[in-house]
Each structure stands twice: as structure tokens, then as C-alpha cells.
Amino acid sequence: MIEERGTSLEETYRLYGDLAARYDLHTPPGLYRPNHEFILEELRRFGPGARILDLGCGTGALLEHLRAGGLEVRGIDVSPEMIAVAERRLGPGIVRVQRFQDVEEREEYDGIVSLSFPFNYCTGISEARKALVAFHRALRPCGLLLLQVAHAANAPDRLFEEWEPGPAGERDIQFLCRFLGEPGSEPVVRAQYVYSCRSLNELLYEEHVLNVADVHLIAGLLRETGFSDIRIYGNSRREPLLNALAPYVLGIRKSG
Q1: Which has the higher per-residue pLDDT, 166 or 63?
Q2: Across 147-166, average pLDDT
Q3: Does any domain span residue 194?
Q4: CA-CA distance, 244 to 151, in Å (whole number)?
Q5: Does the pLDDT of residue 107 top 90, yes or no?
Q6: Three-state DSSP string of 201-224
Q7: Closest to 5 in 3D by CA, of 245, 183, 214, 190
Q8: Number of domains forming the structure of the chain
Q9: At what angle do helices 80-90 and 61-68 cross, to 10 degrees?
Q10: Which pLDDT belongs to residue 9?
Q11: CA–CA gap between residue 159 and residue 179 (Å, rounded)
């Protein structure tokens, strides 16, 4: 059955909610190792013990990698189920349930990072701007903001299929996804996901609405909110944007 899901910030999609314990099955941490390494490389400028916040930390796979690299890590996520999985992975006191829009710390972190599309769950440009103000305030001078975001103009409108090992062995987990871009003044990507696990007899379809889906627009908001030295990369190899659906945008909080 296909469920209609709203975009209220008070709810989480099932892939991030009651199926959070399955998340690492269809998106295993090893799948993102190049992304994790790229983020760690960018953060090494701050030296061992640098304090890092992961926005939308999910099951904690990125935090685990950064901590193994010598960084002091914290994570937030709106999903209690995701946080429960992350706590089992990382131990107590590392992650907490919180919307990234509600970050309140002041000059607390050397780096604030977000992998995949958490930032695109802002409801629109106004909320995105307010969130960036909060991130700027939470960074120490010369701190780094690194966001991976959706870019509607490059949404490929084709079906991607992945098979992963599951409880029954190889090719037990199937994950289908398609991204439909709607560029414009309020750019959107409609991310359609199908998850299935044959051994667990599970099947799920969801459509996630990714807002503010324009990396150039987000880069402009970074400038408006006080960030400098802004860079856009198409992928973890630091290549140009070109046709990338999920580019990175980076900015530095000015020292003054």
C-alpha cells in the first residue's frame, strides 16, 4: 500500500522512523566510505580533538568514522528511532533527539557537517536561512560548515536499483530510488524510495519532498548569513558540479 506522507517537521518518514533499525541494511555504512573520508579530510585542518556536530546523524555511521579519526563528535536527529540505533553504535552522551533548525549553541563547534539531504527537509527558503544563522552562531571563528544537498536541476528522473546482503545472505535487500526535480524559485526534488527485504517479508514505498534543492541558492544563503570562502563540489573527489544530484557546499565562518 502506498502511504501519503506530509512534510510536517513533527513527523518522520518510516524509513527514518519505525524502520530505522533496517536503515543500515539498505544503506550500509561501507557504501558511504568515500563520502566519510572526504568529510574527515576537510575536518583534519582543525587537528585532533576538534569538536564536530553532525546534523541529521541518522544511525551514527559518519560519527563513528569521524571519532575513529580522532575527532570529538556530537550528533542530532529528529527521529528517536534513528537516535536509538546511533546510541547502540556510539554509546551514551554522543547523540540526541533534536531538529537541526533548533541548534542553540554559541561558538561550540569547529565543524558542522551533514551527509546526504537533511538540510533539504527545511520547509522553504526562510527556514533554511534561519537554520544557517543558527549554524553560523554555533561555529567557532574560522569553523567549517559542510552540507551535502539535493540539486533539482540535475535530478536524473531515472530508476536506480541496489541489492545488499540481508539476514538471508546476498541479494536479500532491494532498494529502488528515483529523483524528480522541480527547479524554480522554490526548487524541489521528489525522492521516491522503495525498500524491500525478502527474508523479513518487508515492503515500503515513500516519497520524500526535498526543499530548497538548489546548491547555488544555498551558497547564496551562506553568503547572506556571514559565511565566506564558499566552495561547491560535485562529489567527494572535489570535482566540478556538472550533473551531480547530491553536491557539497562548504563555507567558513569568518574570524571577525
Answers
A1: 63
A2: 94
A3: yes
A4: 7
A5: yes
A6: CEEEEEEEEECCCCHHHHHHHHHH
A7: 190
A8: 2
A9: 30
A10: 38
A11: 8
Distance (Å, whole) CA 59 – CA 17: 11
Range of the domain at 163: 153-210
pLDDT at residue 28 in the model: 77
**Among the three residues 210, 226, 241, which one is the final residue of a domain in this structure?**
210
The answer to whether the beta carbons of residues 207 and 191 sit under 8 Å apart is yes
Residue 76 β-bridge partners:
55, 96
**Which residues does 253 contact at the CB level (< 8 Å), separation at least 6?**
136, 139, 140, 141, 142, 143, 144, 145, 226, 227
pLDDT for residue 256: 63
- Whether residue 233 is contained in a domain is answered as yes
Question: Position of cell 554559541?
Answer: 106
CB 191 within 8 A of CB 159: no
Which residue spans within 25-71 are E strands per DSSP?
51-55
CA proximity to 233, closest of 148, 154, 135, 112: 148
Query: What are residue 18's phi and psi, to 5 degrees?
Result: -70, -15
Q: Which residue has the higher pLDDT, 19 or 232?
A: 232
**pLDDT tens column, 206-231:** 999 999 999 999 999 999 999 999 99
8 Å CB contact between 230 and 249 = yes
